[in-house]
Amino acid sequence: MASTNNLIIVESPAKVKTIKKFLGKQYTVDATMGHLIDMPKSSLGVDVKHDYEPKYITIRGKGELLAKLKKEAKKADRIYLATDPDREGEAISWHLKNELEKDEKNREKITRITFNEITKNAVKNALKSPRDIDMDLVDAQQARRVIDRLVGYTISPLLWKKIRKGLSAGRVQSVALRMICDREAQIAAFVPEEYWSLDAILLHGKKKLTAAFYGGEKKQALSSEAEVDAILQKIGNADFVVSDIRKSERRKKAPLPFTTSTMQQEAAKSLGFATSKTMKLAQTLYEDGYITYLRTDSTRIADEADSAARSFIAAQFGENYVNGGSGAQPKAQAEVKIQDAHEAIRPTSLELSPEEAKSKLPRDESRLYQLIYKRFLASRMSAALYSTESVKLRAGEYIFTLNGSKLSFDGFLSVYMTEEDKAEKDVSLPELTVGEELSLGSFDKEQHFTQPPAHYTEASLVKALEEDGIGRPSTYAPTIGTLLARRYIAKEKKNIFVTELGLAVDDMMQKNFPTIIDTAFTANMESLLDSVASGDTKWKTIVENFYPDLEEAVTKAQAEVEKITIRDEETDVLCDKCGRHMVIKYGPHGKFLACPGFPECRNTKPYVEYAGFTCPDCGAECVKRRSKKGRIFYSCSRYPECEYMTWSKPKEAVVGEKKDGDIFVAPSTDTNAEPVMPE
Predict the structure, then answer these.
(1) To 5 degrees, how large is the angle CA 62–CA 67–CA 69?
(2) Any catalytic annotation for residue 80?
(3) Which of 27, 290, 293, 398 is catalytic?
(4) What's the pLDDT score for residue 340?
(5) Backbone angles phi, psi at 569, to 5 degrees
(6) Could you give all domains of the chain from N- to C-terminal order, each with its CATH number?
(7) What does the pLDDT read at residue 651?
(8) DSSP class of residue 104?
């Protein structure tokens, strides 16, 4: 029987709204709005001389909220701390418990509950199974927070002093930057190697077949045109005879349901979402009760959800579409230690179809929900089956091959296809028999060169971080966001490039803090943090083994590292006051143009780029601008004379004389107004 006055405390107001729908009047629901207690921003906040004890204070601006929660706690008969089911959530509950227990009357009232999804059943089941604060999880969070604070607050001031103000270093951030710089170095050092391909265009009736050169009895690489020509000479007028036909079936397994990283990767590939955008949308979907918890590296699915999905698939598609046909789950990461082992990301109910979601949710939320929904459904479905055929043809002493593949059973592909799946087309071969001769139409020889490694994209960087054990589901998006905000990296289309500033910071980190940016060291640190979470390691043991070496390295760098000057990027724009080429600077609101003659010349101009198309109203060039919230919009360069503005490029836009990305210089007038797009 529920108490007459119960207080449930969650993290966000959105959760409050959702949970209130499920519970009666005897429940009050309120939110902490994230962390209430943290280490001070103005100081290190860790007593390195006294057992690395962290100093905690009420976060500035959160005093009134904390006082309000304490007031509500006084009136409550029972207090449920229902923050997120992970390390950060556990720490928030612990800090809040400590604050509420300053009133001794609250001590017997407080309990901890968690739920992986915000649904009626999940919330009510959680209320039936309260528990104590998991101090192992809290200590894991404390260890991570303290180590990150020690790294950031000892190295960042050095970067300010030796390179430029406003820079930062971080345990995960600096390793990610190192990986990007390594990739850039690999690309720069890459020497392309020549290779050739040789195809025979064969005729079977009116059908043309393209057979690829294989070699002799073993596969042979072709490294030069001379090698190809020598082969063609040997083949001469030899007949192309079918020597072997092999038919088989290929299975393409259903994908596992989304983890945080795979969701970020797939959303980037198929929807073009930045990792930060994906996490923001997923957070909203979770808080509104549409999907399960979004920060997870587990592919496990609750038995109830698994059973419901299989019944749904059987009803909608047929029993042969159900994975395994017997209810067996796809093998998840059984042998891998999963941190914060929640379920995989899935819809809380299959009743809200992607089609219905389009009318119920904002566009981007709907698109991400559709991706999650279809991926989960696909994970419970049968493998796709392909009928494959491999044909060998002999021409003299050489072998050419024909390969065919045709989808024979779509399985999970009926609901979910990646970009790679979509690119895979059926290739049908005619009926051939061993000994059959095919007439030669022509040869097609082509020169190729090996390609350098691809630049990282957000998706591939997240994948690489996960594979190397760097960071955790909650850190991928903020890490990339920090690198972009610090101007260490830049994005061009989807590709990530390191900036001169990023190279300078990485170089300093390599020379002075090689351990901090070592991937193996950072991955091992993540394992140690996991061992704290499982109760196998004391958190202060990790810190006391880590900090002395860091302190020594910082002291040495402060004495030995010379100041580094980063040249500003010069533009073709001339300063209209002194004639110098203006340079690109970075301020709180992004790029701007400044005269390099500062402080003698203090001239600045807004940094605005051409959009690459002309204004449909007056024919002048259009430019790209940013709204107050950072969203790009397009306007006429003649504003305010022409007030044309749009959020997206017109489909039938006329290409302008200026290229997309060229710098636009506004006319120098006292009345030059900046257009502001309504939010």
Answers:
(1) 95
(2) no
(3) 293
(4) 43
(5) -75, 120
(6) 6-133 (3.40.50.140), 141-189+458-560 (1.10.460.10), 194-253+385-449 (2.70.20.10), 260-379 (1.10.290.10), 569-664 (no CATH)
(7) 77
(8) G
